[in-house]
Amino acid sequence: MTEEIIIAGFGGQGVLSMGKILAYSGIMQDQEVSWMPSYGPEMRGGTANVTVILSDDRISSPILQEFDTAIILNQQSLNKFEDSVKPGGVLLYDPNGIVQHPKRKDIKIYKIEATEEATKMQSAKTFNMIVLGAYLKIKPIVKMENVEKGLEKSLPERHHHLIPMNIEAIKKGLEVVEEYQP
Predict the structure, then answer these.
(1) Bridge partners of 179?
(2) Is the CB of residue 98 less than 8 Å from the CB of residue 32?
């Protein structure tokens, strides 16, 4: 099994940390892992993306042109990466701020109202974990206990008290993701 993922959005949406948690979760499952971030000089508001590869076999290169899954969190990223999803692949997106929705018919498209759900949870910081939960519903490539270990590994110890809230957000994402028909 090899899963090649691009996660893309604005800086500040938790794109890189979502990828890091996935990568650590894969390591906890004894998978081969690649985590390659890409971001502009802006901390918040600029574009950011991360390529994550989880595999049972050695990974030959972290540089990809096509992906099994694209997790898209803004219009700019949708414009850039929709065509990079392999035929038969998955595109998961949050429709908040999206004016031109995905159009491809040769991939599975899912939407997650993560912005709305994070608002209901009264914590904007749970946004990326809601998205991660939606992804894990669609493709359960890592076990939940390994996601918890991945959270512990990627979050500084001073933030470990937030892990239960993050787990709750992941579970919310598992519940509310839905298929989208263009």
Answers:
(1) 110
(2) no
The SS3 of residue 144 is helix
Say which CATH topology domain 2-179 has. Pyruvate-ferredoxin Oxidoreductase; domain 3 (3.40.920)
Q: What are phi and psi of 162, to 5 degrees?
A: -90, -5
In degrees, to the nearest 5, what angle opens at C-alpha 174 toward C-alphas 128 and 140? 95
**CA atoms within 13 Å, Cβ hemisphere of 72:** 29
Nearest to 128 by CA among 67, 70, 179, 173: 173
How many of the other CB atoms lie within 10 Å of CB of 1?
Answer: 8
Secondary-structure percent of the chain, ordered helix, strand, coil, rounded to 5: 40, 25, 30
pLDDT, tens digit, 9 for 90 and up, residues 66-91: 999 999 999 999 999 999 999 999 99
Token readout for 10 is 């604005």
CB crowding 163-180: b at 16 or more within 10 Å, else e? eeebbebbbbbbebbeeb
H-run or E-run covering 33: strand 32-39
> Of 106, 164, 107, 169, nearest to 134 (Cα)?
169
Q: How far is CA 88 from CA 51, 76, 118, in A?
A: 19, 22, 30
**What predicted TM-score, i.e. pTM, was given to this entire model?**
0.94
